[in-house]
């Protein structure tokens, strides 16, 4: 039986250290982490790797349920996939495990709360953006890709897939930048 930790933050500028430290203290022998939104399973390759790695009797450990996902259906699907492999999920804060009979009920309720919280965050964000636009101070989000470098590489004959690999982004992002011109 292995304790395998999974840590996630939503953006590149957030820090994983607190979650990783907590998972280490809890005795996780392997910890995978990623910086990607928990709004869906899309792009969460480390989570997919962890689930694929799980064997019967293993335990998937997360610091909080919202690190596993922000959508109730996704969280329940993840738990189902983990259990299909004969493993179980443990959330550290609050301490809940699918190993016990009440664990599923608690995780379902916590998943619903995480989903509701995500909706509130998006709603507050939209309201803040609308207020900032109305007062003329909204400048948009921070650009994460060097658009000039993408255009230069493309002009030098480098293909979108190679540009994406070099810059650590998706091909779709490269195509969007190239369409801007």
From TrEMBL:
Pfam families named in the record: HTH_7, Resolvase
InterPro entries assigned to the protein according to its UniProt record, in alphabetical order: Homeodomain-like_sf, Recombinase_CS, Resolv_N, Resolvase-like_N_sf, Resolvase_HTH_dom, SSR_resolvase
Position of the signal peptide: none
Gene3D superfamilies the record matches: Homeodomain-like (1.10.10.60), Resolvase, N-terminal catalytic domain (3.40.50.1390)
Keywords in alphabetical order: DNA integration, DNA recombination, DNA-binding
Source superkingdom: Bacteria
Active site: 10 (o-(5'-phospho-dna)-serine intermediate)
DNA-binding recorded as keyword: yes
Ranges for domain Resolvase/invertase-type recombinase catalytic: 2-136
Keyword set includes Chloroplast: no
Family: Belongs to the site-specific recombinase resolvase family.
Name the record gives this protein: Recombinase family protein
Organism: Methylobacterium adhaesivum
């Amino acid at each position: 039986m292995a304790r395998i930790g999974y840590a996630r933050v939503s953006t590149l500028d957030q820090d994983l250290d607190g979650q990783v430290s907590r998972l280490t203290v809890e005795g996780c022998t392997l910890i995978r982490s990623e910086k990607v939104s928990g709004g869906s399973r899309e792009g969460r390759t480390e989570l997919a790797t962890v689930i694929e790695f799980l064997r019967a009797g293993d335990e998937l450990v997360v610091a909080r349920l919202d690190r596993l996902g922000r959508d109730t259906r996704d969280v329940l699907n993840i738990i189902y996939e983990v259990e299909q492999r004969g493993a179980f999920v443990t959330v550290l804060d609050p301490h809940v495990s699918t190993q016990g009979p009440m664990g599923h009920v608690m995780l379902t309720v916590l998943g619903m709360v995480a989903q509701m919280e995500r909706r509130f965050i998006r709603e507050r964000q939209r309201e803040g953006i609308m207020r900032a636009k109305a007062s003329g101070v909204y400048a948009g989000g921070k650009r994460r890709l060097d658009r000039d470098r993408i255009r230069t590489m493309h002009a030098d004959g480098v293909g979108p897939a190679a540009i994406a690999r070099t810059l650590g982004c998706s091909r779709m992002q490269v195509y969007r930048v190239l369409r801007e011109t």
